[in-house]
Structure formats: C-alpha cells, structure tokens
Amino acid sequence: MRRDFSVHDVRPVELREEDVRLIDQRMLPEELVYVDARDAQETAEAIRAMVVRGAPAIAMAGAFGFYLEASRHFSETPARLEEVLMDAQALLLASRPTAVNLSGALSRMMDTFRTLALREVSVDAIVRGLREEALAIQAEDEVSCRQIGEHLLTLYEEGMGVLTHCNTGGLATSRYGTALAGFYLAKERGMALRVYADETRPYLQGSRLTAWELLQAGVDVTVICDNMAATVMAQGLVRAVVVGADRIAANGDTANKIGTMGLAVLARHFGIPFYVAAPTSTIDPVTATGSGIPIETRPEDELTVIRGARIAPVGVAAYNPAFDVTPNELITAIITETGIYRGPYAFLRL
Ligand SMILES: CSC[C@@H](O)[C@@H](O)C(=O)COP(=O)(O)O
C-alpha cells in the first residue's frame, strides 16, 4: 500500500510484461492497492467486479486483456488463435454492457488481429501488433482527454461553481479524465473553480474517487449527497453541470451513471447549462436513440450494504440500474476531443 501518491501518477490501467496492473478502485480512498490480471478471464472478472471502472478505463483494460490472451497462445496456429480471441472478445464484452468504449476497443483489437492474420505474418508478429494496438488505444485516450479539457475550459469563468457526478477523472481514463479534465487544466492555468461532487449513490464514485483525485490535485472540491443537487443550484452555488458518458446514441441521448438524468432535469429548471464531456469513442453511431442502449443492472447488495455494513433490512428488494439515459434535448452541449457540439446532434452519425 502507498499513500504518498500524486494525482499525476494516476494510472488505473497499466500494461506490464505479463499482466495488466489495475488500481483496485473498490478500496479507494482508504487504500491504494492493485490487482494484476493475466488473461482475458481475469481481466473480465476485474471489470465486472469494478476493480476498474469508467468507460475509457474499462476499454483499455479490455484491450490489454485481449492482448494478454493472445500472448498466452503464441504457439497456436492463426486459425486456432482466432477462435481463442473470439471467445476472449465475447467474455470481455459481457463483463459490462453499457459503456460502448469497451466493445469499440475489442472490435478494434479483433480487426487488428484479422488484418495481421490476412498478411500471413507469424503469430509472434500478430501478438506484437496486438500489444501495439492496445497501447495505442491508451495513448489516444490521453490525448483526447486533454483536448476535451481544453474545450471545457472555454466554458468556465474564474470563481465559477460547477457540479459533477460520478468519477470521470484520471481513474476512469488514461489521464486527466473527461468531465474532470477541465478542472485539472484550470488548476494548471491558475483559474479557480469551485467543484461540487455528487457522492453518487450507490457506489459512491463521487465521494470516494472524484473527491480523492481532485483533493490531491489541489482543486477546490466539496462533496454533497445526490439529493442536495437541487439545493446547491437554487442557492446559486453552481452555474454549470458537467458529466461524462458511457454511451452517446446517434441523436445525442446519453447513458451515464444513474442520477445523471435527474441533474439534467434540475439544470433545465434552474436555467443552468448541462454539459456532457466524452471522447468520440463513447459515441455509438449505430444506436439511433437512447432507448437502444443496454442498461446494466447491478447486484442488490451495492445498495443495501456499504463496506460490509448492512443499511437496509435483510430480505428487502432493491433495484439497482447502474445508468440512466438523459434525453438529448436536456443537454446544452456535448464536448469531445474535436470540439463543442450543440443540438440537434444528428451529425454524430458520422
Ligand atoms: C470518463 S468516465 C464516464 C463514465 O464512464 C462515468 O461517468 C460513469 O458513469 C462510470 O460508471 P462506472 O459504473 O463507475 O463504470
């Protein structure tokens, strides 16, 4: 365990020689410990169990798990390797269904395999190619996050209060984050912003992870319960809401952490802009509207038990959809690495 830790070192997903090292986000903020996954099965389990979470981070983990599976089968024929990788792709894809970044990264890995296999290069060369592709996915995400941050900065003013939900920072991406990137860049440039972080029930990504990240970076952050959002808006403490996304349909409808849609409704009521910040890898041009986005339902005990302590009676039913879908008409702008887009969002079909 290490506590002397700088946020600039945040690497939630790190490919090593024979495994992928994941920060165990279930243990933060109390402990900084790691889980090492050696193949597709172990990586899929880590994604399912939320060791690693956040749409871009699970995509990177998935790509690395795919590569590790290939590296473990380097003595197979290309045809047999293809079967192994199709199984790995299906296994990883099933680990979490909502974030489209995961399926995008896995398709990209499979396409890379097929391109290399068609060229009749050795399995060794195929495996090396897959490693390079997975690392490229990670490197591209870092660049995208920084560009998203630059665009977000243009929407902020000195001293402004901004509300955010869930965790969209370095822990959820390769670095900087998406919705949090603007706060990091503001800090780097000496612009003071006041960030309000929803605690984000039931999994507490806001109070455990966002507060942890921003605090270490010296960003002015205040945690609130999700049910205080209306009050901070009514009191004029926040003048914008910025969230990330797990999947943006072609018409701009956006799936993100449960509770996001409520914030969008409140923001409209209070006349506050509601921004979605995400890389283009989060856009799903094949899904026409939000009704086509698969929403993950997670185990009941994420609601009824916190850190081993039961907070609801044994036997009570609990409903735990992990994401909701914000209708595009409630979204003031979608910010990607390529710019700031305002509705109607049909151009996202590109
Ligand atoms: C940059 S992360 C964007 C989203 O993935 C984030 O807001 C979110 O909903 C994460 O959900 P999680 O269930 O923690 O994986």
Write a compact overview of the structure shown:
This protein has 350 residues and is an alpha/beta fold. The chain has helices at 40-48, 55-71, 78-93, 100-118, 123-153, 181-188, 205-216, 229-234, 260-270, 301-304, and strands at residues 13-15, 20-23, 34-37, 161-164, 194-198, 220-224, 240-243, 247-249, 254-257, 274-277, 283-284, 305-306, 309-310, 323-326, 333-336, 339-341. Mean pLDDT is 95; it is low at 1-6.
SSE topology:
Layout: E1 13-15, E2 20-23, E3 34-37, H1 40-48, H2 55-71, H3 78-93, H4 100-118, H5 123-153, E4 161-164, H6 181-188, E5 194-198, H7 205-216, E6 220-224, H8 229-234, E7 240-243, E8 247-249, E9 254-257, H9 260-270, E10 274-277, E11 283-284, H10 301-304, E12 305-306, E13 309-310, E14 323-326, E15 333-336, E16 339-341
Parallel strand pairs: 4-5, 4-7, 5-6, 7-10, 8-11, 10-15
Antiparallel strand pairs: 1-2, 2-3, 8-9, 9-14, 12-13, 15-16
The protein binds 5-S-methyl-1-O-phosphono-5-thio-D-ribulose.
EC number: 5.3.1.23
Site (Transition state stabilizer): 166
Pfam family, one: IF-2B
